[in-house]
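Appendix B. One record, verbatim.
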Amino acid sequence: MKGRATVKLADGTIREAEIHWFEAHGVGRKDFKIKRLSDEEFRHLH
């Protein structure tokens, strides 16, 4: 499955990203991967 989300990266940057995830029957969402970051940076947290 795939969708869009606001993600916080390890350096504190918050970006829009396309994410993909896998679901297992009876377990739900199992593994998230960031496939593509947007070109626009929202803000940098200090």
